[in-house]
Structures are given as structure tokens and as C-alpha cells.
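DEPOSITED CHAIN:
***
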Amino acid sequence: MTSTEELDLATWPIFSKMSRRGLLVSFDKMEALLADVQAQMEEQLALIECFAGRKLNPMSGDGVARWMVERHMGGKRTKGGKSGKGSRLVTDERALQQHDHPTLNAVLEYRGLKKLESTFILPTLEIARRDPHPDVLGGIIHPRWRLTKVRSGRVASESPNLLAFPSRTEMGKRVRSCFVARPGYRMVSVDYSQLEPRTSAALSQDERLLAIYREGRDLYIKVGTDLGVPRTVAKTLTL
């Protein structure tokens, strides 16, 4: 049996080197993205005011809830007293998505842009500016890689949390494109396909799992087909 020292601790020097070397952030790309995001936020504010009939702070849950009450919109409410007094309409993303209303659609769009700005763009720029690269118009960030923080055993990172950066939306892809290769190097993207189930198949020697991978099939599609659910649901259940 392979020990923890042979598996986990043996990788610490690699992650330590990754942290020291860091990642290069393009100031030009990140600042252009920031300007674009802020311009789109202004557009959404104008749309919100136009659709709502008055100024409305999209980041204020109470303000959005009051506006919804004024428009006689129903929905899930927060817990109040026995009489229900003190409760208000829930205005999180899932709740607002239940309403097909242009005002609330603009509120959701604004909140998504605000999260990009405040959670990913501005913090990353701030960190990168502390360590400007002498040869290019960019700065180095040095994320801390953690092997023991997540209970699943997956790698985690902090300052910033690179693994939380969005990847599926167009704006998320633009955020990721701000990380660039140093002069003379190339940026390479690598992803493991179904790493945990493949590891489980190898360790358990389960013939059904091994057969799926020997035949080049997708485990999540197989599970989804058997259960009658989409692949994304099957993946969540499997993991």
C-alpha cells in the first residue's frame, strides 16, 4: 500500500515551486476587461431604472423585495414570526430566475457582472500590481496551493482562489484569458477526464467500471441513461 508520504507529501515541492514562480497577469487584458464589465454594469443600471420605473439598487435584497411587492409579485419568503410579519420575498438568484421579468433579468445580469468585478478582476489586479514583471506589461500572482484543505482530497488554492474562476460563460473565459505565458513560453491547458471514477475502477477492479473505460465510454452518460437523468445530474450523483 502506498503511504501518504509517498503520494501527498511527495508533491509538496512541486506546488511550492508553482507558488514561488507564480502566474503572469496581463495588465492590458485585465484592465480592458474591467472597463468592459463596468460599462456593462452601467448599461444594466439604466435598463433596471427604465424597466422598474424608478432607481433600484440591484445589490439590495430589501430594495428589490420592496419593488416586487409593489408590483404584486409572489414568491418564496424569508421566515418571519408566527403571523408572518417581518418576512420578505427571497431575492437570491434562484428565486429571481422564477420570474420572467425584464427588471429582474437585468438585476441578475448586473449581479453577475458585479461578482466578476469584485470577486475576480479587482482582487487579481491588486495582487498582480504588487509584483510587476520587469519585461512585460503584467504582474505576477503567487497563489498558495493547499493539499489538505478540501475534505475530498482535491487541490485548493488561495490568494486568489484560481479554481473558483468562472470558465463556462464568455466573460469567465475572458477573465481566464488574462493569465498569459511569460516571453518565450506557451500556456498549456490540461484536464483529467473522470479522474476519481477511473481511480476507483483501478483500485476496486470492479469489472463493470473497468469495462466502461476499456470500451472508451463515458461513465456519467451510462449512469444518466440508466437513471433517466441528464449527464450533469448523473455526474453530481456519481461524485
